[in-house]
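Just curious: can you write whichever protein you like plus the matching structure tokens?

***
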Amino acid sequence: MANNYTRLHLQFVFAVKYREALITNTWKERLHQYMTGIFQQNNHKVLQINSVRDHIHIFTE
């Protein structure tokens, strides 16, 4: 009997309220670490995380 394997990838996009440019380089890395920690505590694997001044992308499986 054949085995079936499934892998689901999700992309989350979070935007700053009113799309204001609030994510600065001074604390962007700390924000990425914090959000990655939230995903890891819920037993998910973050494959990629990146942000610009007004939104953040998280690619996970």
Notes: The longest strand covers residues 46-52. Helices lie at 28-41. The chain has a mean pLDDT of 94. The chain has one helix and three strands.
